[in-house]
Amino acid sequence: MAVRSKTPKKHFKALFRVYLGPEIALGPGKAELLGHIAKTGSISEAARRMEMSYNRAWLLVRTMNRSFKQPLVQSSRGGDKYGGAQLTKSGREVLNLYRALESKFAAAIKKPVGQIMSRLKN
Predict the structure, then answer these.
(1) At 102, which CATH number?
(2) pLDDT given at position 112
(3) Whole-Å CA distances, 22 to 19, 63, 87, 98
(4) Helix 89-118 to helix 28-40 angle, to the nearest 10 degrees?
């Protein structure tokens, strides 16, 4: 008896990346990291929530800060008690603009994506 394989679940994912030269200045992962930093006030906690290393998170923060005219994240040393991180005014603005772009794009493509998805196998 032949085993019938299940058709994969249909889905669509649009990803935006902003480049400065060869580097990704901002993309979905960096936007998510910024959101977690804003919520937690901590790069290390943001990294934990994304299941990434602290060093990787710091690399992403440094890339973003280096890429924009004004830094997006400001941090202070001091460990659990006195240290922390927060988005700068520019960081909050850039994150809000990125999220607005995602939202507007999703609304604009809803119909054509639905038409494409309806043509996929069930």
Answers:
(1) 1.10.10.10
(2) 94
(3) 6, 11, 24, 19
(4) 130
- Residue 45 domain boundaries: 18-118
Paired with 43 in beta bridges are none
Can you give the pTM of this predicted structure? 0.84
Task: Write the secondary structure of the chain as one string of H (helix), E (strand) and C (coil).
Answer: CCCCCCCCCCCCCCCCCEEECCEEEECHHHHHHHHHHHHHCCHHHHHHHCCCCHHHHHHHHHHHHHHCCCCCEEEECCHHHHCEEEECHHHHHHHHHHHHHHHHHHHHHHHHHHHHHHCCCC
Identity of residue 58 = W
**For the chain, which residues score pLDDT lower than 50?**
none
